Every structure is written in structure tokens, then in C-alpha cells.
Automatic annotation (TrEMBL):
The active site is at H25 (proton acceptor). Keywords: Cytoplasm, Hydrolase, RNA-binding, tRNA-binding. It is found in: Cytoplasm. The lineage of its organism: Bacteria, Bacillati, Actinomycetota, Actinomycetes, Propionibacteriales. This is Peptidyl-tRNA hydrolase.
Length: 195
């Protein structure tokens, strides 16, 4: 069980601006929007000026949670995350990154702590800025690009019509996984969501 006096940071990985909002790479932003709704809060600029945040609790009683949407592009996301983590005095083991994952089928989730970057520039930037990769990851599957489509083009493209119908369920599941991870720990979350 978590200590209610602790603060957790939940980082939604993505790129800022309306032109990126529907992209597969922005699943982290979408999940954090859902979590903000559940907390009854709206994003506002953090004092660092490098991220938008929502502060609150996902469960009462429960620890304080800070949802973070970095205001930088994916490959520079680590700086804003480090700034917010330093401000709230949150160690990497209480940081959750929500991101897209090519090696997992669309609609599925995998939850883990630590591990490599698997070519993901957002994770690479976070690892570099935090000095460790030992944060939690909610990995939202987007699958591999069809045919010979380049990976970069695929992650920076919108979900297909079929995927858009399923997307709300994946967002909901990922938000539930964040709540479970904070309240019940990694093992229980993996049992429940790593299908």
C-alpha cells in the first residue's frame, strides 16, 4: 500500500500542439486527459514553465498525484520531467511514464518498472535527464507499421478509423492501470493488465 503523504508523478509522453493531438505517439497525453477528468482538474502551466500539470488525488484517501504534460517535443521530454520531479521532490521510483509501444499489439497494455528505451526517444530523454531508467512504464500497444511504412511516419500519424473506435477502451484501461499501480503496486497491476 502507498503512503498517503507521498507524491507521485504521472508523465504522459507526447508532442505538444494541436497538429500532434491525434497521433499514436500522443497516447500518454490522451491517458493523462482521462486521469485529469477523473481528478476533476484541468492542466495549468507549472512554475518551471516547461510543463502543464494537474495536482490532486485519484483516490481518497490516497497519495497526491501530479499529472504532467511536458511542453517540449518527445526527444527533449526529460528536461521538463526532471524539473517537475525536482520541484515536488519525487524520486524516479514514484514516476510513471505512459507511452506508445510498437512491439505490443494495439489495444493491449504492458506495465513494468525499468528496462531499456527500445528506440523510444521520450524514454531515452527521461533516462538521460533522471540519470536512471528505474521509473514505471505503462506501455500502450500501437503495433508495428503496415507494409513498408517508416516507423517515424507511423507513430506520427493518426489512428485508423477502426482503432479510433477501440481507443477509448485502451485509454480507460491505461488510466485504470495508473490508479492500480499507485494504490496496489506493480505485481497486482501486472496480474490485472498484462494480458
Amino acid at each position: 500500500m502507498t503512503d498517503a503523504s507521498e507524491v507521485w508523478i504521472v508523465v504522459g509522453l507526447g508532442n505538444p500542439g494541436p497538429s500532434y493531438s491525434g497521433h499514436r505517439h500522443n497516447i500518454g497525453y490522451l491517458v493523462n486527459d482521462e486521469l485529469a477528468k477523473r481528478m476533476g482538474g484541468s492542466f495549468r502551466t507549472h512554475k518551471s514553465g516547461r510543463a502543464d500539470v494537474v495536482e490532486g488525488r485519484l483516490q481518497v484517501p490516497g497519495p497526491r498525484v501530479v499529472l504532467v504534460r511536458p511542453r517540449s517535443y518527445m526527444n527533449e521530454i526529460g528536461g521538463p520531467v526532471k524539473a517537475v520531479a525536482t520541484f515536488y521532490k519525487v524520486p524516479p521510483e514514484r514516476i510513471i511514464a505512459i507511452h506508445d509501444e510498437l512491439d505490443i499489439a494495439f489495444g493491449t497494455l504492458r506495465i513494468k518498472q525499468g528496462g531499456g528505451d527500445n528506440g523510444h526517444n521520450g524514454l531515452k530523454s527521461m533516462r538521460s535527464s533522471l540519470g536512471t531508467g528505474d521509473f514505471f512504464r505503462i506501455r500502450a500497444g500501437i503495433g508495428r507499421p503496415p507494409g513498408r511504412q517508416e516507423v517515424a511516419d507511423f507513430v506520427l500519424s493518426n489512428y485508423s478509423t477502426t482503432e479510433r473506435k477501440e481507443l477509448p477502451f485502451q485509454i480507460d484501461d491505461a488510466a485504470d492501470a495508473v490508479e492500480t499501480l499507485i494504490s496496489e503496486g506493480l505485481e497486482r497491476t501486472q496480474q490485472k493488465f498484462n494480458r
